[in-house]
Amino acid sequence: MNTPKHFNSSVRQSTLKDVAIAAGVSQSAASVILNGAKSGTRVSDLTRQLVEKAAKELQYRPNSLARSLAVGRTERVSFYSGFHRFNTRNAFYAEILDGVMAALGKVDMNLLMHSAGFETPDLLGIVSNRSSDGLVLHGTHDDPIIPLLTELRVPAVSVCDRISGLHCVVSDDDAGGRILAEKLGEAGHRHVLYRTSYSSFDSADHRLSAFRWSAAARGMRVTEVRHAEYDVCDLTTDELDLIRASRDPVTAIVGWDDQVAQGTCAFLETQGLRVPLDVSVVGYNGLETPIIPKYQLTTIKANWFDVSRIATENLLQLIAGQHVETVTTVPVAFVAGTTLRNLSN
């Protein structure tokens, strides 16, 4: 067997053929070892050692296109945010992206981003041109990409929301909604204003349903309000009247997420209402931000980083042909802030 020869890699980038010549093996054998090519070529441990040594000395870097053709994979995963713009300045989206990147970083894979809405022909291109090996999806059940994923058998995992027909990784929204109702009930609140999601996210619907059921079991009245836009924080005249009512007033407000809850706190202050002395406010998400917010919310911490990390790990298992649970649920935790007043004392 020939010993590896030294090439002047400063002249040009070393090729697979260079490595094969240096190691004294066929190019197909070198490809099997370095690119994972599917071939009938068998390689011995000695051959593998010679090829790996030659590749290291020649500073050989596999060609990504050649590798993808050899193994039938692109070594890329796509993230699809449907018709919702992926805003990395939003703490929720930033945490989701961090989780995806953490999982991909462990296996040295790249990420493609698809955001801000697509027409059906564009969606078909995303799932049919095999520009990536699979899809992490954050969307709703009625997104037109869902039937395309099923029809073309593209590996996909929904993150945060349950979507029929797809593998999903979600936060325990049922527990989160139930815990909020329990804490408000224990604090003596009897009439609560619930400001729910502007859209029919499965996660938001689950936490509302669980809250509603748990509140009813405690004899708590819940007034639900759904606004037409995502970040509506100003209360309407009717909502303010419920707080200022002389009989059965609203004593606590639930924001379907922390952004709405924080904005609600700020708006109440402009109306001369103190949080939590005049009205309590609780949220959902428990996201950490580099800037300390004015209001230390009482909230539910949903571990969105873990949700998206596990979703990406599950996707990688699907791509590899392994079994994955249809729904994986990540636990939540109650965070006691300073915006919930105990009326029982």
Provide a descriptive summary of the structure in words.
There is one protein chain. With 345 residues, this protein is an alpha/beta fold. The chain contains 12 helices and 12 strands. The protein has helices at 16-23, 27-35, 45-57, 64-71, 91-106, 120-128, 145-152, 173-186, 202-217, 237-244, 258-270, 304-319, and strands at residues 76-80, 110-114, 135-137, 156-159, 167-171, 191-196, 221-226, 252-255, 280-282, 299-302, 327-330, 332-335. The chain has a 6-stranded parallel beta sheet, with helices on one face. A 4-stranded parallel beta sheet has the order 7-6-8-9, sandwiched between helices. It is elongated and about 90 Å long. 39% of the residues are buried.
Average pLDDT: 84
Give the number of DSSP strands.
12
Q: Decide which structural class fits the backbone.
A: alpha/beta
Number of helices: 12
Anisotropy-based shape: elongated
| Rg (C-alpha, Å) | 27 Å
The stretches of 5 or more residues where confidence is low (pLDDT under 50) are 3-10
Element-level helix/strand string: HHHHEHEHEHEEHEHEHEHEEHEE
Question: What oligomeric state best describes the polypeptide chains here?
Answer: single chain
Cα(first) to Cα(last) distance is: 86 Å
Trace the largest sheet across and list its strands.
2-1-3-4-5-11
Approximate helicity band = 40-55%
